[in-house]
Amino acid sequence: MPKKVEKSDVPFCESDPLKGASRGVSCCKVDALITIDGRGQIVLPKDIRARAGIEGGDKLAVISWETDGRVCCLSLIKADEFGTSIKGLLGPMMEEILQG
């Protein structure tokens, strides 16, 4: 039986935590598991919204990556920060994923 995934304080880049830090890049971690309801809607937990500065009415850009014709990863970025942050936030992470 697969292990149940829970909220984690272990970053995905645990194998080389200094590599990302030396470039000023933060690591990703699992903050919560969310459920998609029957209408396709999700609820972001209150503590995550507070830490991210997300308020009612804010717009989020949904970024997806495909592997073998299927979407494998989704990311949410505040729309007003999208243009300036996408390359800095996701570029190095995706570069490492594609190289690995």
What do you see in this structure?
With 100 residues, this protein is α+β, with helices and mostly antiparallel strands. The chain has 3 helices and 2 strands; from the N terminus they run H-H-E-E-H.
Structural topology:
Layout: H1 17-22, H2 46-52, E1 60-67, E2 70-78, H3 79-99
Antiparallel strand pairs: 1-2
List keywords for this structure.
single chain; 100 residues; alpha+beta; Pemi-like Protein 1, Chain: D; two-stranded antiparallel sheet; 2 strands; 17% strand; globular; disordered N terminus
Number of helices: 3
From the alpha carbons, calculate the radius of gyration and give it in angstroms: 15 Å
CATH topology tier name: Pemi-like Protein 1, Chain: D
Which structural class best describes the helix and strand composition? alpha+beta
Q: What count of structural domains?
A: 1
C-alpha termini separation: 27 Å
Strand content: 15-25%
CATH structural class: Mainly Beta
- What is the mean predicted local confidence, pLDDT? 75
Instruction: Provide the spatial order of strands within the biggest beta sheet.
Output: 1-2
